[in-house]
Amino acid sequence: VMTATVALILGSCLILGSLGKPSFPEQEKDPKFWNTWAQQTLKNALGLQTLNQNKANNLIFFLGDGMGVPTVTAARILKGQLSGQSGEEGQLEMDKFPFVSLAKTYNTNAQVADSAGTATAFLCGVKANEGTVGVSAAAVRSQCNSTKGNEVTSILKWAKDAGKSVGIVTTTRVNHATPSASYAHSVDRDWFSDAEMPAEALQDGCKDIARQLFENIPNIDVILGGGRKYMFPKNQSDVEYPNIAKHSGTRKDGRNLVAEWTEKMKDSKGHYVWNKQQLVTLNPNMVDYLLGLFEPGDMTYDLERNSETDPSLTEMVDVAIKILKKNPNGFYLLVEGGRIDHGHHEGKAKQALYEAVEMDRAIQRAGLLTSVHDTLTIVTADHSHVFNFGGYTHRGNPIFGLAPAVSDVDQKPFTAILYGNGPGYKLVNGGRENVSTINYQENNYQAQAAVPLSSETHGGEDVAVFAKGPMAHLLHGVHEQNYIPHVMAYASCIGQNRQHCLQHNQASSLRPTLSSTAALLAAIKLLF
Q1: Which residue positions does the secretion signal occupy (predicted)?
Q2: 30 marked ligand binding residue
């Protein structure tokens, strides 16, 4: 019934309203439509009273970097409009998850967080200072000598130690803030390679993040993303962009980390790839370890991606899961839609929202490749942005379109999407730019901002946490962000809290014994 109801909504033609009034599907005028839909939703909700308390063999964590609630809503509308609907009534894949909670994102020393301190929270289970990854709040940003003794380990390591396969997939550099907190301990998120580190930090024994990717947790099974230049010796020409200096290797220590990895993995079904063709032609059954670095820096925005040479996030997730799921002990996979954040920082809402829609496609693909019976999947953001949309827009208004009325102060039109601050602030002849004179639908259009900044800032409000699968119901209400990996570890019997697993295993091991005894008693009865 639910599917039929949604199909009715999504399949409806928008009936044109008279006198310029907003148009919407005709059946929405009938109270029965809304009552029937709500009753079906209620029936589905009552079915959730039977909780999924299975053990989570697999853990998948999707992180939309900068994907605050306004971004989720706008991405939902965009996804619907891309399929010819008005958008508001549609559903993202994450919208279909049965449990949703809110996470408080502040860092120990910041009211409005950054991606490094937050990544430490949702991967290591400990809140931390902004700018630091894989270290507690006792560590001080950029002070190398505050690292030692303050390292904290991540759920990726807990999973690896428990015998699971582990993977990292990102659209940013693989040594960027979010992924790096899963394997590195660095007091500065910007220490991508030794070239970005101060001499003092190197003398004090601190390691760059790219090096830690290969040295801290041996044999991470799948690593896919950008960041190629940080793995190669300084000035070594890039394979895809030869003789373009900004894409050349950066390493001062002369090491070729890719060559070292390839040599180490040559007898272990290890493969290194750097373009889409190499990735999609792999047979996952013949690959146990995969390193894919598809760009010298971050991967390109999905709107600008060369679909012949660069894989999408969905394509990377597809290959990663097919490799990881071969392990009978299960897997942990971190997936980052990392450039949602970059689009917002640049004031380019169209880039950001298309990135969010692509991550939603990847969530769908992961769902098709796994089962809610044994896979806990969580989707969340590290922080929000000062992005929003409003202006009393009519139903079905193009998400990148104009508000229906001009400003009653300066008599100029304005886009529904606006930023609180950022590079979109612009004065023309002493006043706000008239957006009707420019192409505000363009991919790289920078939406107007109230305060001029070269880079738009993060937002400080709570973010949504969507969960499905074993123990997903533990993500409810409002919690600190660092609570998330504790739930994931509990659900999969890894990390520090495993007492319930021992009890569960003992209970399970009793069952065959009892059934054997029952069979023996039945046989004795037959004999006598």
Answers
A1: 1-20
A2: no
